[in-house]
């Protein structure tokens, strides 16, 4: 194994990219730097989760009615601390908090950005040592700096994101993000405690042979989704079918695999949940920004996720994302079968 010596660290990359934006004052750079710090702290806790009292339930329920895991709360509080310390953030919307968290001190009120986050994604996999993640999305506030931030600062459509990304705590820990100028991945090198550029300018294949959906919900799927699953399972050498079914149950991990290998991830509306399960602001919008920047697609089955006008902080939407050609085929099935 040859070790790379001319590695570029996340901070070096952030500073280099900042110079591409004339007039940039470093606010976004400082915020991204602090996300890196929070990611390292959470990574350390995840790595030794079995040895410290951080597995299992916290004992409370979050606004979604889910039992909060200790690591959900741990990640939530460490991100909030890091965002506060950055001095660039005026408020946070988090899966683990019903209302937005306002930074009302002077430094906070002067923050230029608002931050949406899923501090710990894949909570059902925490206790069983399966890959989990954190997801974030950043917007420039629309309310005047100096004032306390408002809910309207968060209800901006996804096309307005200035940056988005995720951290995957897996066999290695990676941070993958975009500022609207391509997608780059950084792997944490524990020996130097630095995220190092390992996946520059990620592009997702136009086609793939992996489909990811929780088939346990099959009977509640609409007919378009059922027909598309059948299409994935039929034998056809020319289109490399049957495709392979892969489902980890952590959005970040399922998306990351498909991003690199090509594939499609679907969490659709069902007869039970007309809006599916995943949250627009801190799961679907950031992942959709990454998907599109890597040459893929992300929709709710009908329209671009990034064009949906948010109405509520914890709003759910059906989510389809992946390789362009697979998305087109899936949409054909949805259009045909859901409209007959
Ligand atoms: O178990 P299900 O219904 O398939 O849901 C799995 C989905 O739910 C999630 O765990 C929801 O995210 P959280 O763990 O952050 O609540 C996603 O990561 C994943 O894609
Ligand atoms: Mg999640
Ligand atoms: Mg979560």
From TrEMBL:
Top-level EC class: hydrolase
Positions bound to Mg(2+) 1: 95, 118, 120
Cofactor binding notes: Binds 2 magnesium ions per subunit.
Chain ranges of the Fructose-1-6-bisphosphatase class 1 C-terminal domain: 205-334
GO MF annotation terms: fructose 1,6-bisphosphate 1-phosphatase activity; magnesium ion binding
Keywords for this protein: Carbohydrate metabolism, Cytoplasm, Hydrolase, Magnesium, Metal-binding
Binding-site positions, substrate: 121-124, 214, 247, 277
EC number(s) given by UniProt: 3.1.3.11
Recorded GO CC terms: cytosol
Subcellular localization(s) per the UniProt record: Cytoplasm
Main location: cytoplasm
Pathway recorded for this protein: Carbohydrate biosynthesis; Calvin cycle
Cofactor(s) needed for function: Mg(2+)
Residue positions binding Mg(2+) 2: 118, 121, 283
Reactions catalysed according to its record: beta-D-fructose 1,6-bisphosphate + H2O = beta-D-fructose 6-phosphate + phosphate
Pfam families: FBPase (PF00316), FBPase_C (PF18913)
Gene Ontology biological-process entries: fructose 1,6-bisphosphate metabolic process; fructose 6-phosphate metabolic process; fructose metabolic process; gluconeogenesis; sucrose biosynthetic process
Domain Fructose-1-6-bisphosphatase class I N-terminal span(s) in chain numbering: 9-200
InterPro entries membership: FBPase_C_dom, FBPase_class-1, FBPase_N, FBPtase, Fructose_bisphosphatase_AS
Family listed: Belongs to the FBPase class 1 family.
NCBIfam families for this protein: PRK09293.1-1, PRK09293.1-3
Subunit (UniProt): Homotetramer.
Designated name of the protein: Fructose-1,6-bisphosphatase class 1
Biological classification of the source: Bacteria, Pseudomonadati, Bacteroidota, Bacteroidia, Marinilabiliales
Gene from which the chain derives: fbp
